[in-house]
């Protein structure tokens, strides 16, 4: 195999092979090799042997990893081999340890080994953590989660659903206390963080004037929070239900949301009015999520978007807008649908509410799904919002078939 003293210019200009791949060894650092594929991708690795068996340690791709950095990494790896270590095995072990001590893995251990045996409500604990914490922290090592990370997460959840924020804080505190006893973490990052809010039942709904101001504010706010906020208002879905909406969950005029994302843990088909569907259709397809800025993760930063909306609404109303939350849009929509003459069962269907056990007729005997009624109701609500915001009558065009 060719071995030359590589230079930055030589690495840059190295020819791409017509087929297969080319490997060039660096004469300055033994074992350092630059691999060039027929696709033009250049990557660094360090080759060595352990008890006669060949090993290859990946060092990174060029140009992200420069020649200088590749040589530094190769020298470190070579020194480790001379000490009798195996860098490849050490890296795999570190990756395994990180996976085992990642938040998602630790959450599973906590549920299986602590919550299930001790708490009858373990399913609710699991649901809250899966819905609110796992999407944010994923496989992040629990040792790296600091108090500020917990505060930011709880505050973000509290801006929309205060009760869920209180529950999340409680479950996280128990989980990290359990991990602390098992010496997985050195401290409980939830310690000292007070419950985010003193809960009282909210009754806030937006007035017609506020709805108009909000709608205009979302148009000025722009992509992606403007369309996402209008989607919340028109559908009545929760913020996370919309934020994590995927393209493959859309089926005509319906959005099929999995139970893992729903508060009640049940799969749900949300009816989409023609206006709501138009919002979805207008979004660029950057990745798996409908509302995203990078194509890889759902949108985040709702708190800052809310601050901007408040400012824009206050400018429109010419007075400071009264305190409201994104979750109030759900209540506003439900109240509006009731005002339009639809009964409780239809509203519950739109909001994915499960009938109370005390309501035996609805919870046990009435198995009708009210799909057609729900679709008709969201169309009428969208038309009502359009009349308020544009003053124009809206012709319903969506197919309400189920």
Give a written overview of the molecule:
- This protein starts with a strand and ends in a 12-residue tail after the last helix.
- Strand 6 and strand 7 (254-257) form a beta hairpin.
- Helices cover 50% and strands 11% of the residues.
- Helix 5 packs across helix 8 (162-181), helix 9 (208-221) runs antiparallel to helix 10 (225-235) and helix 10 packs parallel to helix 14.
- It has a 5-stranded mixed beta sheet, covered by helices on one side. A 3-stranded antiparallel beta sheet has the order 6-7-8.
- It folds into 3 domains: 3-91, Double Stranded RNA Binding Domain (2-Layer Sandwich), CATH 3.30.160; 103-181, Orthogonal Bundle (DNA polymerase, domain 1); 208-390, Orthogonal Bundle (hpI Integrase, Chain A), CATH 1.10.443.
- With 402 residues, it is of the alpha+beta class.
How would you concisely characterize the structure shown here?
The chain contains 17 helices and 8 strands. The protein is elongated and about 80 Å long.
CATH superfamily of the largest domain: Intergrase catalytic core
Low-pLDDT stretches are 360-367, 393-402
Return the CATH architecture of the largest domain. Answer: Orthogonal Bundle
Task: List SSEs in N-to-C order.
Answer: EHEEEEHHHHHHHHHHEEEHHHHHH
Rg calc: 28 Å
Number of domains: 3
Q: How can the largest sheet be summarized?
A: 5 strands, mixed
Question: Quick one: how many beta strands?
Answer: 8
Q: What value does the average pLDDT take?
A: 86
CATH-derived topology of the largest domain: hpI Integrase, Chain A
**What proportion of the residues form beta strands (DSSP E)?**
5-15%
Query: Rough shape?
Result: elongated
Helix content: 40-55%
End-to-end gap: 65 Å
Query: From the helix content, strand content and strand pairing, which structural class follows?
Result: alpha+beta
Compute the number of helices: 17
Largest sheet, order of strands side by side?
A: 1-2-3-4-5
